[in-house]
Amino acid sequence: MPSLPAGVALGAGSGDADGVSQPKTTWGLLEHAIGAGPDERAIVSGGPPVTYAALHQTAASLATALRDRGVQRGDRVALMERNTPAFLTWTFACAGAGAVLVPLNHRLAAAELREVLADATPKLVLAHEDFRPVLDAALEGLDAPPPAAWLGTGAGSSPMGLGLAELPGPAFLPAPCEPDDVCHLYYTSGTTGRPKGVPLTHRNVVQHALAATSELDLAGDDVWGHIAPMFHLADAWASLAITAVAGQHAFLPEFEAEAALAMMAARGVTVSNLVPVMLQRMLAAAPGCGFTGGSLRLVLSGGAPIAPAAVREVLETFGCEYVQTYGLTETSPYLTLSVLEPKHRELSEEAQLARRARTGRPFETVELRVVDDDGRPVPRDDRSVGEIIARGSTVTPGYWNRPEETAQAFRDGWFHTGDLATIDKEGWLNIVDRKKDMILSGGENVYSTEVENALYEHPAVLECAAYGVPSAKWGEEVRAAVVLSADATAEALKEHCRAHLAGYKVPKQIELLSELPKTGSGKISKQRLRDGADGGASVSPRSSQDPAP
Questions:
Q1: Which of 73, 108, 125, 351 is deepest in the core (most CB within 10 A)?
Q2: Which CATH number covers residue 492?
Q3: Among 122, 152, 182, which residue terminates a domain?
Q4: Residue 16: inside a domain
């Protein structure tokens, strides 16, 4: 197994709380759920509910099948599947066998997948038969392609990908994993270069799961909606956190706004984390579907800042609490949450909305600082901008086979996120931009988020992204790409921005598109927008008179 970079300290383990032993490994979380209630429902997603006892037994059987295929502790097993019960089951099966799960983004092209597989060197690839053409093409280009097993119902496949061994039941002994063994290996989207592997240890993901149950008051009667992609940490962390409390899992294989709303209503979903683009589309679709929130008690969203007006729409449309989140793959993922404290609920409605829309205060497993270019903490005045740095038990030990990039990102025991933020006197952060997305126009810093927040105040804007492009006159100039939900012109949007922003922050050009380019995890790709502006990657224009998407 390739070694992880040395010299990066891991955070301390959780230890025991109140004398009660806490799980130390991913498999331990599943065993913990069995102890809490083997007959509790684990999966509610079409067909008869699956109990935790049945999930445990199937995962143990598949772990045995992996061993029979020669998979040993530390070997990588790649998984290419939609949001399904199979994805959840294989997550625990790999843990039981001591294997490192490598979730594959099924939206990648064959050449991109080939790069991931070449770097991860999996012992086995598990993939749904629908992805056979692209995966076969990816495997063909490898010097030593791993064997593949196919999930599905067609010829040459089985529902779980491997023939089930005789169910071992309570006799199954999981691999003797240690908390600092690598558990999962995620690959970043690679929009600015080749994919980069981020290993997370059992300590990382288990500590995050246990902390999330406390931070978000997750309980056994919660039903989690797996709507964001499970191959990405936008959702993957919840597979472990909901299992830790013996809650229920509901699945949406492919995102479509109306289908997501219907699934939440049918399965009684109480909580979910949504990529911002998904949230915007579900809010737009809800009135036409007659969806008013149903069983929802909490919606989380992260990956991009949100405007207070959008938070208001969530509260009014879904009738539930909203929490803004911020984190990275490298941090398992959460670094902050905008969970209101009792004192905040005494504020005015507008002040509460503004607080919910902030990036939030530190997640309980991490220590955060906002520092200037010299590494000194910036004043807590909510105006001074610095880079967010973090350390704690949920931070990756380093990049996979990337010692130079690890050394660059981890300095003096702190992980440097590359995200710029302010911090207020209460210690709450507010993201203003990625370092690489900040626009320097005419000697002035323009943060893309403030431009986007202004655009989102316009009622016709469904999605938007602000970015900088080279300018002979200004060094860089501000541009924006917008998807509309109602008729509007680019000039009308500029006028709207002029009423909310200083002149140098107003986009010089606004392009109306039918959709914005996305990364595999569903985030807007500003790199592709910049490339398109330079005559590179193409985007899809639309007329302001086109029907809303």
A1: 125
A2: 3.30.300.30
A3: 152
A4: no
301 occurs within a structural domain:
no
The DSSP line for 29-66 is: HHHHHHHH-TTSEEE-SSSS-EEHHHHHHHHHHHHHHH
Least confident range from 14-28, 158-172, 178-192, 327-341: namely: 158-172
The CA distance from 198 to 401, in Å, is: 10
CATH number, domain at 80?
Answer: 3.40.50.980
Report the alpha-carbon distance of residue 14 to residue 28 in Å, rounded.
14
- Cβ atoms of residues 123 and 251 within 8 Å: no
| Measured torsion, CA atoms of residues 327, 303, 261, 541, in degrees rounded to the nearest 10 | -170
Place of tokens 């991009």: 304
Task: Select from 152, 179, 204 the last residue of a domain.
Answer: 152
Q: Number of structural domains, the chain?
A: 2
The pLDDT tens digits for 368-396 are 999 999 999 999 999 999 999 999 999 99
Render pLDDT for 41-70 as a digit per residue (tens, 0 to 9).
999 988 899 999 999 999 999 999 999 999
3 state DSSP class of 412: coil
Its domain, for residue 448, covers: 438-533
Note whether residue 508 is domain-resident. yes
55: CB partners within 8 A, 6+ apart: 30, 42, 43, 88, 89, 92
The residue to which tokens 């939900």 are assigned: 485
- Name the nearest CA neighbour of 416 among 380, 370, 376: 370
Domain annotation covers residue 61: yes
The answer to whether the bond into 333 is cis (omega within 30° of 0) is yes
Measure the CA–CA gap between 228 and 269, rounded to whole angstroms. Answer: 14
Strands 386-392 and 366-371, by their bridges, are antiparallel
pLDDT in tens, 200-222: 999 999 999 999 999 999 999 99
- Structure tokens, 413: 């025991």
E-state strands within 275-412? 298-301, 321-327, 334-337, 361-362, 366-371, 386-392, 410-411
Confidence of residue 7 (pLDDT cuts 50, 70, 90): very low
| pTM of the model as a whole | 0.83
Contacts of 255 (CB under 8 A, 6+ apart): 227, 228, 229, 278, 522
